[in-house]
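Case 322 in the screening queue. Each case pairs one protein sequence with one candidate compound; here the compound is NAP. For every case the pipeline is the same: read the inputs, emit a complex structure as tokens, and attach any notable structural observations.

Predict complex for case 322.
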Amino acid sequence: MRAALYERHGSASEVMRVEEVATPEPGPGEVRVKVSYSGVNPTDWKSRGGSTPRPIDDFQIPHHDGAGVIDAVGEGVAPERIGQRVWVWLAAAGRRWGTAAEWTVVPEQQVVPLPDQHSFELGASLGVPAMTAHRCLFADGPVEGKTILVAGGAGAVGHFAIELAKFYGARVITTVSGAEKAELAKNAGADLVVNYREPSAVEEIRAFGHVDRIVEVALGANLRLDLAVLKPLGEIITYAAEPDDPALPVRACMNANVIMRFVLLYGVPRDALAHAARDITAALTSGALSELPVHKFSLDEIVASHDAVQNSAVGKVLIAPA
Ligand SMILES: NC(=O)c1ccc[n+]([C@@H]2O[C@H](COP(=O)([O-])OP(=O)(O)OC[C@H]3O[C@@H](n4cnc5c(N)ncnc54)[C@H](OP(=O)(O)O)[C@@H]3O)[C@@H](O)[C@H]2O)c1
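Case 322 output:
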């Protein structure tokens, strides 16, 4: 099969190439998926580039996310799964068979049915962003009846955080940096969209009511705003690191009795990931999850696709391997 791969860490143009490798066979408990779209996330260029390196087993086909059709199953997997439309999560975590190839092999628990009414583009957008959004929203309990602030609601994680929070009964406030992103956040269903660059941001959020929980993409940049709008004993859940670590205003955090949580998808317990996949499927089946604008690349454009994500493309970057 044709696959994009690298054998060492480095810039995309230095280390990535497309070549023929043996098509993998599914082992016990695994399925093979013919990939329609592979979804690119920031973690993919960070792993490849070496800023957050992950071990390479001889070679690494990048990308955790993808969607396609199961065409072979390993021992112990129901043969009825062959022909199923699916989306996959964490395909490349500790494995060389990422989704940037014509086929991937993945443990069957990480391969989730994709309802017929939903596109492969949406399926390939879910994995890392939707699973991360779910963990941030629900690790501290249900969101029903709560007011959730999603920082950066036009980002991939932010988008699914808005949609999942709405589906599970929350009121959602989100912050963005401008009009184009405000439109995306409104389309996702946010009840209030605020430009965090405006001096009135805190007042606009306060006028809407106190915030119970914050899904945070930029803790250092936003902590002042977060502490100004969060109710006492509220939670801030951070899933992204900024270039410089913030200095923590301890007294202000104590005054708010704030609870802080940090999330890294690679270390989330397996049962929580399985729970996330079930909840995402329920939301998907009900039509509550939608696509961001997509930017499509061919497999031969793998370098450009990584550069697009690294340069903060608005929307989802996808690769069509065939
Ligand atoms: N911990 C994990 O397991 C995990 C999982 C997924 C992603 N991540 C990380 O999370 C980050 C976002 O990933 P993504 O795929 O969602 O990226 P993305 O689609 O590029 O979205 C990032 C969003 O954050 C917004 N943003 C940046 N600074 C902000 C600020 N101060 N306040 C509010 N919004 C701000 C950006 O818009 P503006 O710049 O226009 O504001 C953009 O919309 C990346 O660093 C990624 O590596 C971590």
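Case 322 observations:
- The chain has a mean pLDDT of 97.
- The two ends are 10 Å apart (CA to CA).
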